[in-house]
């Protein structure tokens, strides 16, 4: 036996089968065995998870120990002599495997259990098989459970309870009757399961199996592991702004299944249902595969050359057109930073206008307005990791479980780890169940509520005086405004008990450990006073000094995969890339770099472009990866506006409402076919990599825009050398050379180090998990007095007695252009529903599940009633996905927040009637309601200029 | 306050004659209540309810206590209460005095079923004397005293208690968890102690808490042991009221809070990490070690876990018996099943223990073997009855006397019991215990396969339920090989 050498500090030295190994202190024997390049079965131990100790297949002999030890949960200790191949260990391991495969229906086992048993010389169990008479549950849309293949290793339960912190599944029954299942032995689909599929990814045997037709079976996974060709591409999820890492597995050029990436610091191995089961849209038959050009009123296939010639000609003509800004671009928050950068560069440098915007206008524009004014940077200041360390987490106007499922998991994890949660939402969202205090204000009363919290914090002297003195300005001016904002007054306005407001204020101002994190979503911003709401939040953070330190921060949770990056890359009408102002030295820098004198006058916000179309000022548009004719408010009006354009180019992966009215449609590559970077909600710049070949002639957005830019430049007889990028990596290098926030980044570095959080000022900089630790970009943080106004521009009336709130559904993505191409998601949520308090449902004589008609002053839709206690009486919720032609934005109000231009999606007045009730206004669907004097009505409600 | 003042504040019953009706689980199971009601009418205040005094066989029973005389009247259902009333009236046969029998039993059971169940009664019988003395000492001295009396863990593992307490000191103060689960058949010592002398358990906890610095404790009582829990909670309330808990009634400030918890039952709930999961509201399955519970146990805190009997025995630290006492619940094919206290002195044998339970003239049919330690235990054959008792061999103490010839049947039943009680967490136990039953039920015994499986379950299981599930089978096969010649099921029929 080899003598163990003495270990270096922090490590332990031991021998495995006679070979000396050294492992870090705290490592397990399994780690030591793997360090010694020996192998052991370990069915219940996932590489990235802690030990469960349940399968007992990793048994080893340790010299001097009376019993065998399970290597997965036995710590390696100095001087141990571990034997993996001793006869005793092998015999007992084989005996355990014999019992394990004996659990299966046919006695042969399945997946890793079968493979491992075979490696130990067992093709079949020596015991009589349990037989096929075992539990099956096929009720979940995405996957099935077959207990005949289950070895009760517990990895699925661990995944559900301790990775995702959902707690839907567990072990029912005891002993030999133990079964995996959900509460009360109900069908899986009736449980609180969110179909994230973490359990399916963990299952080593295939007892939990995706239903997809692709070879996405866990048992086949085991076969694949044993030699069948499959490839893994590490990429970033294309859905929301959380930025989860995905390990996408392909077989024969098609996406087969998706696992999480445990090394990804943002997602820690998690995904939600869309990330794991929602990528089949990539292979949809509906993908655009060739350019389309409108001929005689119809969109018909055309060659790239024909389509781009036409586009270039018309864009060049628009460029030559006199008058103010006849051209505008809408960029895509689903596309890459590189795509966005090239697009805004084209708009500014070639088309001579700053009218480039993207959907951030519809989500966090008010947050950006407030943050820019008050601290000088619009991004989330902290990392998700700070949630784990925070004493208090305050989540305002964010149904995180529906919109950012993996962040919701991280929040639940933080609560389990001791953080206290404050939830502010007019709807009793899932997270309220784990909250310390849940405040349920009337929609649109946030300013009153937040000012009252500030009032309590001042009155009870809970504020951070030294932070306010050293780091802020305009405190006294602001303080005067909150002096009158008592909790009692806020109770009157918001309906939230004054004592609950006090409780929330104390929790936020004085967290029991480290700091407090403030997290918010669209419930704050999508109001006609959205910027004031955001300002009130920032005031609170400044008052309590809850930014820049460990476990604290302000987080406007980003909606789209790359909405942060699209803003960073300059797809905003009022800033250059990296948030540099349009005038002054930045203008000089970008003018010099792009070889053209750039306009310092801000362009148009996307929501105001509608107005310009109506006024015939805007004639030509280039819309990339956006569908404004579904996502804009008051759709009937928006349709009319788009109808007035002279020339509309839509570049996307699917046909949609906007593309249908375009003159040219250009087929783009999806995230799965190209290279580039996404920047997530915690400012982490992450690579995406091509997974499959593009369909037909689809090209990458940057590549298409590049060529359009060259062609337009040629027609305008201007140099086109700024658009000769060879690759996304090239483009990124140009961005890094101009944008201080990513100066130290390159694709090579991201390839090597994984995702990095900006700012990264130089190549040696490790990235910035937290901002504002010693100063704000604008110097001092600025208090901004705000006062509560009317809760919404349109209040309930006798004719329209309900307040309608819109938002997102977990099972669909925004308007649904992508998720309608995922069978399982459509099967899970097939129709647009309206959530209503059961008493309202009863009072109106409806029944849960029946179709009803919702009408606002702008349109009508049919939706299915869901009687749910999460709603308050008099309030309704409808997701804004379009299903079966029904879209709630026919109802919403296009009144805008003055400072940010965001529409008031979160509150409008509606009435509910039985479906089929003749419309009193004489209108049918909103789609046909266009042109009936909407302008005047809109202007009445509009507060902005 | 001092102990004398405490006693003065709780004067208790002052009459000369006392009638104690033995209630408890044993008495109530056989209908002692009507007898008790009748006696209360006859004897008035002199009559009170006590718990079982260990003579389970005697139930329904009542004891008359007079100065210089003690007489238990057994089987009131057969003899009626006339003899008892005669004794109460003063004309009692001096030969019936059973004080000698009781003194022979030593210190642990001295108050069991001998008081009226009140704090006053317990104080009058010496309760809290040891705690009052211990609280006046330095914790380290208390630990030394416990080490000196060579007390070991009475849950069955017999780890030195003083050493365990010593490990619990030095860091963050531990939470004290008391194992009163006692879920296995044939063991009923801890329930008797909680029903019959709950203040001794509280006293032991005070001593342990003082020695280790614990300020909170949780007593995990079997969910079916409702009388034990009720009696203990009553005692807790009395102790708190009197300032014993949370006050200074014992002369020094006591800051020990005690909570009582019960699980939904199951043999595995007596495993120390299962208890912790159960108290935390988790599924009752074992945790793996490390971490040891002394480092991270209940809610992740350092945890000191002791058995009820261990803590009860700790109250003897100032007057330790010459030989370590052990409570032995004895049942099965004997005339006088009940709770016995034996001095493990190297002289006592299995046979002498059986003799005490044999019931004198009423000799039982022969005892073929003893099952020691219940479903995790071993068989002791008649030929071994002369061997002296050893503490380690006694385990938790449960003895079941078996009539000759029943071994194979009992072995099969134990295997079924273990299969039924497996929690299902780990594969070898969950699957293996069921396969053991299958092998034992087979028409002919596949001995090599059975031996191999026992080996796998024993070596591979996560906790000791599985780890010891094969033990009685292996023991039976070694001790009574002829009984299994046609398989266990064949022999059983």
Shape of chain B: globular
What is the SS-derived class of chain B?
Answer: alpha/beta
Main sheet characteristics of chain B: 5 strands, mixed
Question: Percentage of helical residues of chain B?
Answer: 40-55%
* % residues in beta strands of chain B: 5-15%
Instruction: Report strand % of chain A.
Output: 15-25%
Largest sheet of chain A: 7 strands, mixed
Largest interface, with counts of residues having CB < 8 Å to the other chain, equals: A-B, 36 and 32 residues
Radius of gyration of chain A: 29 Å
Number of helices of chain A: 31
Shape, principal axes of CA atoms of chain A:
globular
Strand order of the largest sheet of chain B: 10-9-13-11-12
| Unreliable stretches covering 5 or more consecutive residues of chain A | 214-219, 920-945
Would you tell me the overall average pLDDT of chain B? 91
User: What is the CATH topology assignment of the largest domain in chain B?
Assistant: Rossmann fold
Determine the CATH superfamily of the largest domain in chain B.
Answer: NADH-ubiquinone oxidoreductase 51kDa subunit
N- and C-termini, Cα separation of chain B: 66 Å
Number of domain units of chain B: 4
The strand count of chain A comes to 40
Radius of gyration of chain B over all CA atoms, rounded? 23 Å
